[in-house]
Sequence to fold (503 residues):
Amino acid sequence: MASRQPPDTLAPVREAAVLDVGSNSVRLVAYRVDGRALTPFLNEKVMAGLGRNLRTSGKLSPEGVETAITAMRRFRTLLDALGVPDVEGVATAAVRDAADGAAFVARAQRETGLKLRIISGAEEARLSAVGVLTGAPEARGVVGDLGGSSLELVEVGRARSGVGAGETHALGPLSLMSAGPFDADRVAAAADAVLGRSGVLAGAQGGDFYAVGGAWRALGRIDIALRAHPIGVLHHHEMTRADALRVVEFVRKQSKKSLERFEEAAAKRAETLPYAAVVLERVLRWGNFERVVLSSYGLREGVLAERLPETVLTTHPLVAAAEAFGAPRLRARAFGQTLETWIAPVRAAGPIAFSKERDALVWAAACRMADLGAALHPDQRSEIMFDLVLRAPLAALNHAERAFLAAAVHHRYTKSPPDDAPAFVKLLDESQRRAAALCGASLRLGADISGRSQALLSEFTLRVTGDALTLGTRKDMAHLLTDQAQKRLDPVAALLGLTARAG
Fold:
């Protein structure tokens, strides 16, 4: 007889927060830390403008200081009310460069109880790169983190640690604005004078540029709107070089009022966005990058990732995030892990959607979400699943893979494809749609024959032999092979072009 089901309990997840005091904004993000998965549950920002006029005065903006201290008082109250005990505070370019930066840090701690660690430009670059790799461990290229006052550049993917030496440059919008009203040629010349000496960009010469920072995320939102891209998720939104330059040209031609009317994210940064656009254009020129990849992971995630134990780093961040989102109970996690191995013969026999390595990861993530719709009404599951997974807080996958995963979990509950979903239609070709249907049908087979029990699923075998897909079990478990089992096996076999055999 099958072994008992594991206890359906999990050790409590940890909660931690990062306070990021930048040149333009003061932001608090609180995370649910579940193994390697970092899921924000509170994200609040105040545009303080600490670095405004820093280049001319040498000090923090007095109004910005008061705004920042008030924001930090609120953040302290929120953290106490939520019971988040673990808070890491960092201060970047404006505070480290200002003559009164240390005095601000001391006052902040005295009046709010929140400690700030002033980090160097090289450390900021390194932590941003660590954060990008946390959300995209396969990243290869250059990370650029554009803050209010500075731009950090660092190579990723080649050094043994994954992170090369970093650079910091005074090319943030607030630094560039100090020279006078926006003039695209002047800003480009100022950027060229600095970037032309960048060792990181000189060594790049092609490949991917990973863009971090609120201003560049706003450019990504504009690209999504201009291209009517079917997914609004910014993490791993990709722009070709031509796409990015088109956005830059669009922003350069808009007035401040036009940008404010165009898109919410652009409206909040209408004054600084043209500077960010020109800097991106010059970075693309000097690095000769072929593609821009937006990363929602950066400095804050890098701060947390460095504190994760080695034991959790063996799990791929996509699988960890899918497990945290789709399998909050230990029983569901055990089932998802077993299901991944159990359906591997089907994946190996089916069409390749992306690559063998990427397919294995996306199918593994789908297995962790095989029980995602359990609490939903059966009549609603199929129409909800696609959109739910499409916008889930998942890391380490691009938008086509995100659409594939959403389609696979959708097919876990229905044979009918989500034809009315633009992401399904626009981002997946016919072979990828078929592979997603195969993945979903396999999830449904494993879930239904076992009652989503890891122990019972282990009693079944699933094999591809010759022209047949065979589902089997021991003689004393044969009563589990009902007509329903055959009904679930048939579509899996059909998608493989095989004969279904149960028994």
Summary: The mean pLDDT is 93. The chain is about 50% helix and 15% strand. The first strand starts at residue 14 and ends at 21.
